[in-house]
Specification:
mainly alpha
Length: about 100
């Protein structure tokens, strides 16, 4: 495996594990009792945003990983999209 494919694989796996972990957190919040659920009501929107962001990042970097492994013609466009998505994610969560 080429070094770029390994790096993209690490990014894909990390994004996927974050997306799954956030989704499972959201599922747990759905089953909280009424009194406890009210405490986390303000966290629903940021949680859904993070779920969507990391799911999209996992999908784009997964496509980039596939394109790199199979040497597809569109792999450079997929790499640029994955890099842009990584930049968007870093920009979203960088401390202000």
């Amino acid at each position: 495996m080429r070094p770029l494919a390994a790096l993209i694989g690490i990014v894909t796996g990390s994004a996927l594990s974050l997306a799954v972990g956030l989704t499972l957190t959201w599922i747990v919040l759905l089953f909280l009792p009424e009194g406890e659920a009210d405490r986390f009501a303000g966290e629903q929107a940021p949680l859904l945003q993070a779920m969507a962001l990391f799911a999209l990042m996992a999908a784009i970097s997964g496509a980039s990983f596939y394109a790199e492994l199979r040497a597809r013609r569109w792999r450079y466009a997929a790499h640029v999209a994955a890099l842009a998505m990584l930049g968007l994610t870093i920009w979203t969560y960088w401390p202000r």
